[in-house]
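Office hours follow-up: a student asked to see two folded examples consecutively, so here they are.
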Amino acid sequence: MAQYGRTAYWDERYTKDSEPFDWYQRYDIHPEFAALIQKYIKKEDGILMAGCGVSRLSEEMWKDGYQSIVNIDISRVAIDHMESKYKENKAL
């Protein structure tokens, strides 16, 4: 059984595979998912993406006009990967 609450589990997972991964659905290709988010979250709201991992969700929401997104994760490997990926875009 996976140990989802353990930092070591996520560090190992993201070391082996840092490709974008979205647990639920893709914001940009599932309009019903985007509509649900848009219904409850205003574009000017501050958003905390807890457990962001290597998901595309923050990027896709940012492209849609959400500008105040903070991403956090227990995995330093995931954060380092995302910082490198978005080094040119300080908003992400």
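And the second, which I mentioned at the end of office hours:
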Amino acid sequence: PFVHLGVENDNLPRLTENLQKLNLLRQQVIYPSMLLGATLMTPYEVAQMYQVIANSGYFSPLTTIRQVLDKENNVLTRIPIYSDEVFDRQSMIQVQRALLGVVEEGTAVYLKSRYPKQNLAGKTGTTNDLRDSWFAGFGNRLLTVVWLGEDDNQPIQLSGSSGALRVWADIMDKTGFESVKLGIDPELEWHHVHRFKGGMLDENCADAVLLPFKQGSQPKFRSSCTKTNLKKGVVDWLRNLF
């Protein structure tokens, strides 16, 4: 579906432009498979890309060195830190909400069972023949990317969820993390929509999911509703996102 969305709406050039904004476009020939993540990136570069998402559209170059000290701990030089808004905040909040959904009910649902009281965002990645296992995820102030693979490009028999995701969770256990807090933006409206049919719904409908829309972009039709009683855990999860 994502490839169809990108190709049919001519969004592939937009994807390459966005990668260029982050200085992450490494190939001269552009294929539709890029829409599935088939592009050359190191874990460090993937972390740079997700840093922009987690930071609501602000790009701040990653560096392994912040400052250099002498033996008396006097600062000899500092690496300048700056940030630049490269994507609009509203779009990035929408992406953050999608990544929260990956943990809530997608390929990273393992994290929801491991940390039932925490809200985390992220995305798994698995290449053909289980050669590479990826997970990029973040809490409120900490982002980590894990890649597992062999130097000779042989299969490791681990998917993103069965491999890198588990290592990521172990790392986060040691460093500590806080739940993701989605930003509030006056140009975004939150509506319950049908998760399969896309129409507007009341919040107590069985297939309702709460999503952010730029003003006026919400669906203009309603889907049929099957009433249900929302579980308290779901209500708490939605409330804690803000």
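Two things to take away from it. Strands lie at 58-59, 67-69, 75-78, 84-85, 121-126, 132-138, 143-149, 188-194, 208-214. The mean pLDDT is 90.
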